[in-house]
Hints:
It is a single chain. The chain is of the alpha+beta class. It has helices spanning 7-15, 43-63; strands at 25-30, 33-38, 75-78, 91-92, 95-96, 99-102. The strands form 3 sheets. The chain has a two-stranded antiparallel ribbon with strand order 1-2. The termini are far apart.
Amino acid sequence: MPQGSILGPVLYLLYTSDLPTFEQNVVAAFVDDTAIMAIGDNNTELTEKLQAAVTKVQSWTRKWRIKLNETKSVHIDFTNKCIEHKPIYIMLFHMRTQPNIWA
């Protein structure tokens, strides 16, 4: 399908309509970018929530044979607390994501 075609957006919506959703996370998708957001009281809680979501998305991509670009996949920690930063590592296809922090 050529870029800019009339059917492109409709086919994309149909193809991704069963993207996993999560009780404890928010999934935001725009065109071909997807973000998974989680809120928690500590790094351990966040890591568990995000890893569970990433694992489900990985299963979904394997099922539909969608290739993710692991080199562009990152996670960012946002915090408004003065805490000692302990990096969170999320596994994506057996690769640890590079953590960033925004305080």
